[in-house]
Amino acid sequence: MIRSRSILILLLSLIIFSSCITDQKKFNGQIITEFPTPIELKGDRVFEDELGLISIKVIDSLTVISTMKKDIIKVYDSNQHLISGFGKKGRGPNEFNMSPVIQDGIKTRNFIRIFTLDQQLLTLSSIDIKTSIDSSKVSINKRYELPRELSGTIDIFYVDSTEIIGTYDDRFSKRLNKKRGGFYYHPRTDNFNTFPLFNLTMKPYEVMPATNINARSSDISPNRSKFASVMMHYPGLEIFDLNSDINDNPKRYMLDSDPPSVVYDLNTFKEDGYLAYYLDVEASDNYIYLLYLGNKLDDRAHQTYIKVLNWKGKPHKQYLIPSKYNLSMISVDEKNQYFYGLSYSNDAIYKFEYNSNE
């Protein structure tokens, strides 16, 4: 009898353990699909003199663009008038090894700063915009040298003087967990903590496809209280409250009522057989703006959508962007109610006016 009971307990334990493993492989997000009827937007090309476009960021009344041109960083006012250009490629002081992506931008009462990441040197630079404009040279007020364990850093954002948050992929460097995850870096102590992000599985495993299938875009709210990360090849959105324990997060939202399997076939992926769901995310204090493709990535133009929801997962608006614009990245000016959309294939930036009350 005792032996039978022991066997029963063992079987129950195995069932529970197996169930836990299965649950860990599921996204388990609240399903959100009921976005309002899309409103079609028409755009006008702006910043036409800018070519070799890399990234765009609206910060208060300024628009900051990074390019491959001689002046790598350009600053425009809210009327799209050029204020200044600065920055050049090189290995000297305050020069860029390569044209940077503008990772983050922050405005306080006293300054406006942008943040760029040198992935080779693993250095985050805080660039003071006003001083750079006045001198027509890059003015770096602070550099943060990240630990070598974070050499796979993808996105990175300034929280405050004590914390920096970001995402990494460890499949190549193999210094952490060989997955894509998130981290908190503490500059004053030069320590960091990691937290998990949902990962898709590639079978059979191959490092580059496994890295690409887990591509995602992230952003932080301007008040630095919330962090959003959306997956490219899966309709999954993860939201973190930065005022609570990061390990008690995230809140997950499934943005499709019929999601694909979380296990992807290597050969199908190599044949470009999977959809690209979300290309970019932009965060405000009130809303999350998601650039949705819902098609395969190729050189043909596809219409895109900007899906808007609040931080509690409630759908707010949906906008249709016609295929001729072929957007790759967005930046939002809520105050003046327009989107900037950057197209890599067109090497162009477009301005879309919207009315949030429609």
TrEMBL record:
Domain of life: Bacteria
Pfam families in the cross-refs: TolB_like
Name recorded for this polypeptide: TolB-like 6-blade propeller-like
